[in-house]
């Protein structure tokens, strides 16, 4: 049984259509991340699941029960918001037990539940403090603790880390992931941060303008983005998407970038049979920056294609060097070894891993192969 099923869900505000027919099935124990740019409808969707907002059409099913007409408190969910919404006059302990107090849970049981989550979240020393005496990360853990004592069918998180500094975000990200691994809870987690999505999710729903563009595991989303939007949204820096032509050769299609130019680049593809109908046509050629490396690099199998290309910009980050180059006249980012610093304005040798490229239909923007 799916923990959460969303069927043909739409939401409009006056004549603004914010959610356009969302269908999602989330299994018990999954960590689903809803990711997409600001304004794409993530919070609206989560609020509708929580019952804080109503859909214009469609249904929400939690644990096999349609909950459209069920009040938020009766939906068996726990939600953590971006603003932790702790009660300022209560101690950490009181914040965590407040919900149980309301439900008249026995004191001994409350004590046990608090002890459990406090240990899990390492907030035992903080139980007597007020929220004003806590750091952002500590408040965040208290908010999480308040949700965890519930043991609900479904946890909903709306950008819970967005108020934290970069270092704490990474720490909390790992902590939440560990938490999921330990308790096996079903989590729907909203973020606009694609790194959070990639690192935490068992499946990612990429949203854009009120629709789900792709719903798949992180590796699939990264390797086979369903369309150009997903290709450009997931990954940092994003996938290079370059206009090209597909030509025929005796043993498979060839991608030609900058056709007819003196610096045209030709890439022979293997195992791209789905691209056959596009031979002789324009395509968009997608290649991740890490698939363009320094010329001496060998990739695990297959000989890479080696090209000489002009270098425009070089950005050393410490762990790697990012290079903006021109492939057949088109700009492309490469991720090369940190030890190599080609000089801007010169040409350098690059190796392209052609087993991992993507081809998109320029009209529909969908992945071809
Ligand atoms: N009460 C409302 N009335 C009218 N429009 C609204 C209302 N609430 C949200 N919207 C609009 O709905 C769209 C989706 O908003 P939503 O808050 O779901 O986006 P989001 O994906 O969570 O964005 P963010 O990443 O910025 O939090 C936005 O265009 C927003 O302006
Ligand atoms: Mg939001």
Secondary-structure blueprint:
Layout: E1 2-13, E2 16-27, E3 31-35, H1 42-50, E4 57-62, E5 65-66, E6 77-80, H2 92-102, H3 107-121, H4 136-148, E7 154-158, H5 166-183, E8 187-191, H6 194-200, E9 203-208, E10 211-216, H7 218-223, H8 228-233, E11 240-249, E12 252-257, E13 265-268, E14 282-287, E15 292-294, E16 305-316, E17 321-327, E18 330-336, E19 347-352, E20 358-360
Parallel strand pairs: 3-8, 3-9, 6-7, 7-8
Antiparallel strand pairs: 1-2, 1-4, 4-5, 9-10, 11-12, 11-14, 12-13, 14-20, 15-19, 16-17, 16-19, 17-18
Bound molecules: adenosine-5'-triphosphate and magnesium ion.
Magnesium ion (MG) binds at residues 42-43.
Question: Can you put this structure into words, describing what you see?
Answer:
- The chain is an alpha+beta fold.
- The protein has 2 domains: 2-233, P-loop containing nucleotide triphosphate hydrolases (Rossmann fold, 3-Layer(aba) Sandwich), CATH 3.40.50.300; 240-360, Beta Barrel (OB fold (Dihydrolipoamide Acetyltransferase, E2P)).
- The protein is elongated, with a radius of gyration of 25 Å.
- The longest helix is centred in the middle third of the chain and has 18 residues, at 166-183.
- The relative contact order is 0.11.
- Helix content is 23%, strand content 34%.
- Strand 1 and strand 2 (16-27) form a beta hairpin.
- The strands form 4 sheets. Strands 6-7-8-3-9-10 form a 6-stranded mixed beta sheet, with helices on both faces. Strands 13-12-11-14-20 form a 5-stranded antiparallel beta sheet.
- The mean pLDDT is 93.
- Magnesium ion (MG) is lined by residues 42-43.
- Magnesium ion (MG) binds next to helix 1.
């Amino acid at each position: 049984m799916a923990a959460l099923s969303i069927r043909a869900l739409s939401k409009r505000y006056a004549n603004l259509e914010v959610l356009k027919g969302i269908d999602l099935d989330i299994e018990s124990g999954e960590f689903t991340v809803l990711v997409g740019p600001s304004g794409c409808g993530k919070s609206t969707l989560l609020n509708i699941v929580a019952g804080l907002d109503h859909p214009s059409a469609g249904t929400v099913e939690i644990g096999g029960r349609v909950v459209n007409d069920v009040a938020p408190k009766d939906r068996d969910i726990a939600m953590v918001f971006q603003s932790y919404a702790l009660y300022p006059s209560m101690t950490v302990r009181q914040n965590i037990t407040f919900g149980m107090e309301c439900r008249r849970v026995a004191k001994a049981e409350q004590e046990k539940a608090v002890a459990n989550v406090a240990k899990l979240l390492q907030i035992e020393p903080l139980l007597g403090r007020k929220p004003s005496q806590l750091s952002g990360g500590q408040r965040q853990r208290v908010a999480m603790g308040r949700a965890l004592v519930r043991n609900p069918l479904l946890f909903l998180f709306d950008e819970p880390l967005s108020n934290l500094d970069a270092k704490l975000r990474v720490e909390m990200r790992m902590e939440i992931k560990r938490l999921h691994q330990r308790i096996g809870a079903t989590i729907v987690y909203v973020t606009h941060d694609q790194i959070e999505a990639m690192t935490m999710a068992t499946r990612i729903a990429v949203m854009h303008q009120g629709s789900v563009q792709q719903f798949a595991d992180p590796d699939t989303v990264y390797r086979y983005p369903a369309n150009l939007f997903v290709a450009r949204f997931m990954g940092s820096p994003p996938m290079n998407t370059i206009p090209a032509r597909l030509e025929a050769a005796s043993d498979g299609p060839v991608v030609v970038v900058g056709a007819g130019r003196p610096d045209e680049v030709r890439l022979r593809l293997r195992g791209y049979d789905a691209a056959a109908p596009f031979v002789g046509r324009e395509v968009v050629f997608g290649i991740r920056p890490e698939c363009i490396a320094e010329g001496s690099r060998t990739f695990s199998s297959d000989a890479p294609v080696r090209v000489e290309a002009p270098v425009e910009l070089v950005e050393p980050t410490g762990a790697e060097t990012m290079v903006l180059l021109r492939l057949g006249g088109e700009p492309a980012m490469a991720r090369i070894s940190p030890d190599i610093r080609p000089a801007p304005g010169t040409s350098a040798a690059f190796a392209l891993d052609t087993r991992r490229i993507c081809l998109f239909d320029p009209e529909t923007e969908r992945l071809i192969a």
